[in-house]
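Contributing new records

If you add data, match the layout below exactly. Sequence lines come first and carry their own label; structure lines follow with theirs. Keep one chain per record. Anything else will be rejected by the validation script.
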Amino acid sequence: TGVRRLYVLLCGFEIIPKTISTRNLGAHIIMSEPISAYLLDTTIGWIMVDTGIDEMRTDDPILAKTCFIDRGWTPAPIVLPIHRVREQLSTLGIEPSMIKYVILTHTHADHTG
């Protein structure tokens, strides 16, 4: 498949201890990690790699507690209005129905929408 353009969508941030990524090293370091999705304009149509975060899980305090806080994510991921995937797609002139394929690289709570 020929890729004509690649768009990196910033879908929010996680504030996490470094130990999550470094097997218990760096416990005193806190990191801000981006939550990303990728939109590809290809010769066979639009392809989205990962889908960002389901904003309902961060907007609703009960869901945020259940999906993140109770699982050790303190605080819950930070998702500002500018991070919302539909808003970013709209800025690019793309409707969700125009996306032909979605590829999920993994299914953490911060990558499914």
